[in-house]
Batch of 3 targets.
Target 1
Amino acid sequence: MAYLLDTDVFIAAKNLHYGMDFCPAFWDWLVLANAEARVFSIERVVEELGEVDDDLRNWARGRGDGFFLEADETALPALGRIAEWVNAHPRYSPAAKATFLDAADYYLIAQALAGGHTLVTHEKPENSIHRVKIPSVCLALKIPFSSPWDMLRRERARFVLPEGVQVA
């Protein structure tokens, strides 16, 4: 089982807990976990990350090694199943449905469903009529999802100081 990371995981990591300037170990861990086929995302996420010209955009665009999966025909049935569920759901407004079906989240969930992956996001299930949330769709379609911290704990990620560094 692999993990698929939502756009918000990258943005929050850069802006909050794992800034690229003071916690490069997090970013190195992502690259290593990807090389071991444990962590991925999708190309639509790179597009969203590309909206801001910063170090994160450059990092994402520099991952030409299969980190961001291309869409393929294996996800087509999953796209249909997700669209059917969202469109049939009476809770969401027409605008919320249209926005969701045009966003990276839709494709990310489809890739998770098609590949049997766990989706990693900061989002929480919500009963809003104005926004379709990833966990709400995952719960309905029985797709596993996780917070980034739960993923890091399950994967036993360790961000430690180099050997020989003395802490007073």
Note: The radius of gyration is 17 Å.
Target 2
Amino acid sequence: MPDPIQYIARFLIVAGVIIAFIGVLLLLLKNTGIPFGRLPGDIIIQKKNFTFYFPVATSILMSIILTLILYLLFRR
């Protein structure tokens, strides 16, 4: 029976690679001029000493894009 630590280690490595890939992708999207993170529908509340930012539209768009990518990768 394989050691459970191996599964955890592999999961963390894969998760780290995925997070690094998303970070590089976000940096590349920044240079395209697409207002990623500042889309209409994102909620920004600014007060004197407080800023609340909730990216509703950006979250929905990322969810759709990731769903399509994962569907294409894992379909049979």
Note: The first strand starts at residue 43 and ends at 46.
Target 3
Amino acid sequence: MFVVYLKHLQTWNRTLNLTSITSDDEIVIKHFVDSFAALNAVEISSGSRLLDVGTGAGFPGVPLKIVRSDLRITLVEPVHKKTSFLRFLVGLLRLDDTEIFEGNFDQFMSNRQATGSYDYITTRALKPYLIMQIGAKLLRPGGAAIFYSSQSMSEFCFLNPWNLMNDYAFDLPRGFGKRHVSICSPSSYG
């Protein structure tokens, strides 16, 4: 499935500029490997509902869905060309229980009655404070946000009621840099 994903990402990227990363090695490491690193940072229960905000060409939501077919994923992306690619890819790979919302996070919040609907919110694209401002009400009790970054969030000034639960640091293969997957939870939920 990852080979098919890679092939179609590169094909679509030639005309639609879905990602600035274009070589096979970099896509595999910087997008695929980085995306499912969250599975080392937090134990995600079977059947969990995950909201991936600012998913772009599907990161981290689609790689997580490929390795964990039991997850129920909602991909939020405002750019039409990227949601077109995601619809094609989700259909091609037959990724059941994967929904695509075309719009930004504020539009998603305005258009959905999603209060208490998700176990996890993920993002590689948005600043953490954007999720922290309104994301807590989307989470079920015990839910958490998963932030992907090149820096530790241990020095981050968290918005009340959020707390850092885990900061998983790792080096990407082949010297592609240091990454962090930070797990944060509203204290009233954690």
Note: The chain has a mean pLDDT of 92.
